[in-house]
Fold this protein.
Amino acid sequence: MPAVTASAPGKIILFGEHAVVYGRPAIAVPVTQVKARAVVSAAPGSAAGQVLIEAPSIHQQAYLADLAADDPLKTALTLALEHLQISRPPACKVRIGSTIPVAAGLGSGAAVSVALLRAFSAFLGHPLPDEVVNALAFEVEKLHHGTPSGIDNTVITYARPVFFQRREGGNLIETFPSPQPFTVLVADTGVPSPTAAAVGDVRRAWQQDPPRYEALFDRAGELTRAARKAIEAGKPHELGPLMDANHALLQEMGVSSPELERLVQAARAAGALGAKLSGGGRGGNMIALVEADQVEAVSQALLGAGAARAFMTRVEAQG
Ligand code: MEV
């Protein structure tokens, strides 16, 4: 059996994080500068059913059977086997690598799940279609993130910008025209922040004061719709003030942090059209909308303000 490789990009949320968990729309785009990769190869010397998992970047090497029941890698592989109704896979080695920083709001967990589900199912001779990969990756997300909206696994599976809304009976997943490309800088506070913790804190705050949080979520949803209109109209520069406004709502939700504030302020002071935290918040990454000729100046300002790293991503024109 030939080795099979699959990869999946990272992601950023442009608008609507947290509110999306409560049924409001959000916009996310893939980030192809970072990716997770899974390689599955035959292990001819081993007994059938033995699946060795190697993840050198997290110093993990273990047989599938020996991993804890709630291990995310085990969960993804087991879900694939169950879906394909295979009880004893051929002996194989699964090697996982990722350049996506962990707990940084870039979707590292979802990207590993997607790459793994694709490579493993293809190795078994039954490559899973995107819909199934997305659904199974969501199951892994649920185990590890409590109450995820599903936007991370969706944008990463389909690897294109999505307008996403969680809905009973089937999520709304729409692509939309983006006639003008635009440039976004992504900067990492260097402070790891598991999404589940921030989502759990917002849930507790919402339970204590539902009207206040519902109003914040409503306003975030309106900003997301306005952002989609601006993108579709070929006016991405109009996203700047919308990003600033969305950041203010996230501050009110309690998910910003001193490090995020420093980076957001530095980006704006250096001329960015708008800036906000992206993803769960509390740490992790922020994003800034910039003109192409501002990339250098704003990157330097972000690094000067303490960013652990900063990189540029372009949201390409889509028909
Ligand atoms: C995480 O990328 C986005 C959140 O809205 C959580 C979720 O949607 O599952 C914070």
User: Anything to note?
Assistant: Residues 13, 17-18, 20-21, 105, 148-149, 151-152, 195, 199, 279-280 surround (R)-mevalonate (CB under 6 Å).
